Amino acid sequence: AAKLTGANRSREHCTELDATAEHHAELAAALRRGLDRGEFRLLYQPIVELPAGTIVGVEALVRWHPSDGPVVSPVEFIPVAEHSGLIIDLGAWIINQACADAAGWQDRHGDAGPRVNINVSARQLLDPDLPGLVADALSRHGLAPERITIEITETAVFAGGVALSTVRELRELGVGIALDDFGTGHSSLTLLRTCPVTTLKVDKSFIDDLNGTAEQEAIATSLSTIAATLGLRAVAEGVETREQADRLVELGYRYAQGYYFARPAPAADIDAALTAPALVA
Ligand code: C2E
Ligand code: MG
Ligand code: MG
Ligand code: MG
Question: Which residues form the EAL domain (predicted)?
């Protein structure tokens, strides 16, 4: 077979790019329609206090239920929503819905109602309207700011500038700020000096091998010590086994989240769990 000429090669390369771009454009359009048709839902995954397993918070996790197919994971559509800019409108819907659900729990359970964590992406943090949007949602639903925590990632704030000043404005509203997937970025410790963080969510990768190596345990212990020293909460992410949960208690962790305690579930299931005994006997 003849070798590809330079021209052929670049044409082939273009076709691939076009196919990806076309796919993204189609998915972006479908997401837009999905938002207009109300096809997004929030699930909530409990954040528990150790060792009892009492639910103290929940993390809102978005799902897309297209009318013509199976549920789509945020891992697939959030990057497309970010790239197309739809994340601004989708994010506004998520913030409003999460605040509505948080207000319901506040009404029905008072202080025992869970605080609600809301993920925001890098693109949302670059939007100077974000703090105003959050403030509006809080007042629309009569919600105290302390009942909400905004989850951000290190990479989203690392660049500084608008994102960092947006985080500061959010914190000034009185909402909590959690650093998600903590320890996986390149700026973790530097960021703690400049960013008004209230919670560290210690990444699942540090929790996975807890009963494996001494190194792994040393890192997990150090992260909880850093949090305690700075007056921050540390939440262990992705706890899947009883052994991990037990070890976390020994290492000084007070908060955890993961399939071992509960999977993400609809808001009504959280109400049921709140009135049931603690998750861990
Ligand atoms: P994240 O914010 O770090 O959320 C935690 C993810 O880990 C969730 O996946 C959750 O279901 C999963 N998880 C929790 N416990 C366990 C466990 O024990 N084992 C394992 N293997 N996984 C566990 P999910 O819901 O698929 O969300 C994936 C990512 O998508 C989130 O990571 C977050 O970055 C993004 N995302 C989800 N919802 C939203 C949202 O409303 N807005 C934005 N901007 N991003 C979101
Ligand atoms: Mg998160
Ligand atoms: Mg996380
Ligand atoms: Mg994560």
Answer: 24-278
Ligand 3 centre distance from Cα of residue 265 (Å): 16
Residue 24, Cβ neighbours under 10 Å: how many?
A: 14
- 5 has a pLDDT exceeding 50: no
User: What is the rounded distance in angstroms from the CA atom of residue 19 to the CA atom of residue 9?
Assistant: 16
**8 Å CB contact between 181 and 203:** yes
Pocket of ligand 1, beta carbon within 6 A? 45, 60-62, 73-75, 78, 94, 119-121, 151, 180-181, 238-240, 257-259, 264
Rounded Cα–Cα distance for residues 79 and 87 (Å): 9
Residue 220 and residue 240 in contact, taking contact as beta carbons nearer than 8 Å: no
ipTM: 0.99
Q: pTM, whole model, 2 decimals? A: 0.93
